[in-house]
Amino acid sequence: MWTERRRRRAQLLLLMAAAAVVVVGSALASAQEAALRVGFYRATCPIAEDVVLAEMRLILMEDDTLAPSLLRMHYHDCFVQGCDGSIMLQSRKGKTERDALPNRSMRGYDAIERIKARLETVCPLTVSCADIIAMAARDAVYLSHGPWYDVETGRRDGNVTAAEYVENDLPPPDSNIIDVKTFFSVKSLNSKDIAVLFGCHSIGTSHCGPIRKRLYNFTGNMDQDPSLDPAYATELRKLCPPPRPGDNDGVPVGGKTKVPLDPGSNYTFDLSYYRHVLATGGLFQSDGSLLHDPVTRGYVEKVANASSPDEYYADFAAAMLKMGRTDVLVGDLGEIRPTCGIFVD
Ligand code: HEM
Ligand SMILES: *[C@@H]1O[C@H](CO)[C@@H](O)[C@H](O)[C@H]1NC(C)=O
Ligand SMILES: *[C@@H]1O[C@H](CO)[C@@H](O)[C@H](O)[C@H]1NC(C)=O
Ligand SMILES: *[C@@H]1O[C@H](CO)[C@@H](O)[C@H](O)[C@H]1NC(C)=O
Ligand SMILES: *[C@@H]1O[C@H](CO)[C@@H](O)[C@H](O)[C@H]1NC(C)=O
Ligand SMILES: CC(=O)N[C@H]1CO[C@H](CO)[C@@H](O)[C@@H]1O
């Protein structure tokens, strides 16, 4: 229902981005990258990262399902309007990123606000919401038994947001590899980055909504996606019953049931996501799409067979830093607010 229109918009955005690169390009990009750095708060708030990690431990002790949610939040923040904390902004008129369709399954806003409140007591008006989201994502991976990496900081917060940006910037779960590559290349992320970052789906769950189509009405003839392993599909159909009339429009998340993205190890950040995709075709069509391109498929096979996670973890750190540099506000741009979820209208 949404892919075609969004694909065309993404292609247009890609052309515009290419044009912009030619005009202002490298000067701006390198100025932005230069301002983000590991340990940005070393002088102004040396305990910032310790406070975030300590608070994250408490938050996840109360609800460990928030780890994947907070990792996902960094991806959504970065892809929509840059990593500028704008995912936290609220609107009385229902017009922000928080109000958009993919956000109906987004969680963790209170956790970010809680970390921000702690930081305001120790270093008032110093640490941006965008950086808190980036640090929380890193800590979420680490506390899910994944790798630690040095996170870059120095982002400032934006106050511009719109629900429609979300639809334009985030690929939908029924994307094929061409769509995925188009959306990611707008953010200067290449095929390897895609294959690496999709490993985020090693933790967390999905509602039934995003997979209903591939289970029950793949081509519109009440059929099942043939690229999905039949045994896995049977298991998913048990968890996610057929949609009732109106479900696809009225209840985008598709009920309360949640299914693991990486069955068997959904709260452990590890390499099993890649074995899962190879064996079953993955939960979303976008996960399975990794198998339909030589570069991404080669990467999936390599990681699935890896005897040690070290190389993947190094790739993951590099790709997360790259994603974390997307359209950031640095220097005099943006602002540092006392709270993150301010109302913009
Ligand atoms: C084509 C790209 C992607 C698509 C289509 C996609 C789609 C989705 C969907 C539909 C969900 C389930 C939401 C729900 O119903 O609850 C989800 C969950 C998740 N996504 Fe992605 N995603 C993509 C890329 C990424 C990337 C690059 C990351 C990390 C950097 C990421 C991290 C996560 C995590 C951790 C969850 C679990 C959230 C939770 O348990 O609350 N995703 N994704
Ligand atoms: C199946 O898909 C077709 C084509 O998109 C649509 O017209 C039909 O209403 C769908 N059926 C159900 C039960 O969702
Ligand atoms: C995986 O997710 C499902 C659904 O949320 C949950 O019931 C199950 O306990 C999780 N498994 C693990 C190993 O945490
Ligand atoms: C890696 O995995 C693929 C798919 O399971 C398999 O065909 C291939 O032989 C494996 N390669 C190595 C080097 O183990
Ligand atoms: C957004 O931030 C700019 C400064 O960065 C400020 O001038 C403007 O008033 C802010 N707008 C809103 C709606 O808060
Ligand atoms: C968590 C959150 O802010 N969810 C919002 C997503 O969008 C719907 C529809 O606009 C809002 O009602 C939710 O509050």
Walk me through what this model shows.
It is built from 16 helices and four strands. With 345 residues, it is an all-alpha fold. It has two domains: 35-170, Orthogonal Bundle (Peroxidase, domain 1); 177-322, Peroxidase, domain 2 (Orthogonal Bundle). Strands 1-2 form a two-stranded antiparallel sheet. α1 packs parallel to α8, α3 packs across α6 and α9 crosses α15 (294-305). The two termini are 30 Å apart. The chain binds protoporphyrin IX containing FE (HEM) and 2-acetamido-2-deoxy-beta-D-glucopyranose (NAG) (5 copies).
Spell out the key features of this protein.
345 residues, mainly alpha, Peroxidase, domain 1, Peroxidase, domain 2, two-stranded antiparallel ribbon, 16 helices, 4 strands, 3% strand, globular, binds protoporphyrin IX containing FE, binds 2-acetamido-2-deoxy-beta-D-glucopyranose
Which helices and strands appear, and what pairs or packs with what?
Layout lengths: L2 H21 L1 H11 L1 E2 L9 H15 L3 H14 L29 H14 L6 H15 L8 E2 L9 H7 L7 H10 L4 H7 L7 E3 L1 H8 L13 H10 L7 H4 L7 E3 L11 H9 L4 H4 L5 H12 L4 H14 L22
Antiparallel strand pairs: 1-2, 3-4
Helix pairs in contact: 1-8, 3-5, 3-6, 4-6, 5-6, 9-15, 13-15
Bound molecules: protoporphyrin IX containing FE (HEM) and 2-acetamido-2-deoxy-beta-D-glucopyranose (5 copies).
